[in-house]
Design a protein that fits this description.
Blueprint lengths: L1 H37 L19 H7 L4 H10 L5 E2 L14 E3 L8 E3 L4 E3 H23 L3 E6 L24 E9 L4 E3 H4 L3 H14 L5 E3 L11 E4 L10 E2 L1
Helix pairs in contact: 2-4, 3-4, 4-6
Length: 249
């Protein structure tokens, strides 16, 4: 009798195990689906939206826009950007751009000085997220004001790294970089990378701005990197960003 009971019990036990595993699978699927819906920025297959919070795959998606300038410009429009397509700049070996975007402030956003700077579209897309989610919150947190002006040293420059006569070309050679030298705030406060990098609240603001840029740009360099960057923050969208790898110094 006991032998037959054991044989009968085994199929029932197997069925219970199958039902438990099925239930766990359904729960995991529902949890995963809900997580993706609430955190699209943290998974690789969801479309990029510039108004989503910054997540694990935001940088990779921004750099991937190099392959689809039309989609990049569409994302800027959807996010309410005033940036406009720039005329292509071609003709010089290893230099120039086809997907240039003129950075223009939308209502309530900071202006660029000098105005009408042109960057690659992936840089423009990252700058929009950067201002809204990194720059303005950092200004409010450390300086109790808003940034109204982003001062820069340019984007496009047909040159090799560090201006050398040989070696790799800089990301500036394709307008795929922007050098920021300081900020003007609504209350009249002036922040200079050269002067204020290690100075109290202004220094804390600049360091937060740089560190936040590391999540949006393939390269984010500061005065801590070397003497050549003593007066600016360098942001670019180098190819390495496709893998999610950034140089943050």
């Amino acid at each position: 009798m006991s032998g037959h009971g054991g044989e009968t019990g085994r199929p029932v036990a197997r069925l219970i195990v199958i039902l438990i595993l099925f239930g766990l699978g359904v729960a995991a699927y529902l949890f995963g689906r809900d997580y993706v819906r609430k955190h699209p920025q943290d998974v690789p297959w969801t479309p990029l939206r510039l108004d989503d919070p910054i997540g694990r795959f935001t940088l990779r998606k921004l750099v991937a826009l190099r392959d689809d300038p039309a989609q990049c410009r569409a994302l800027l429009r959807q996010a309410g950007s005033a940036d406009t397509a720039a005329a292509p700049r071609l003709g010089e070996p290893n230099c120039g751009y086809r997907d240039g975007v003129t950075l223009l402030p939308a209502k309530s956003e900071a202006r660029f000085a000098p105005p009408n700077v042109v960057t690659s579209c992936p840089v423009a897309a990252a700058m929009l997220v950067f201002e809204r989610q990194i720059l303005q919150p950092a200004a409010a947190r450390h300086l109790s004001s808003r940034v109204v002006e982003v001062r820069h040293a340019g984007s496009y420059s047909c040159r090799r790294l560090y201006g050398q006569s040989e070696g790799e070309f800089s990301e500036h050679a394709t307008a795929n970089a922007l050098d920021i030298i300081g900020f003007g705030l609504a209350d009249g406060t002036d922040v200079s990378v050269l002067r204020d990098w290690a100075a109290g609240a202004k220094g804390a603001f600049l360091r937060d701005v740089h560190d936040g840029g590391c999540d949006l740009f393939a390269t984010a360099l500061s005065p801590d990197y070397n003497a050549a960057h003593a007066d600016h923050l360098h942001f670019d969208q180098a190819e390495r960003g496709r893998s999610g790898f950034s140089v943050c110094r």
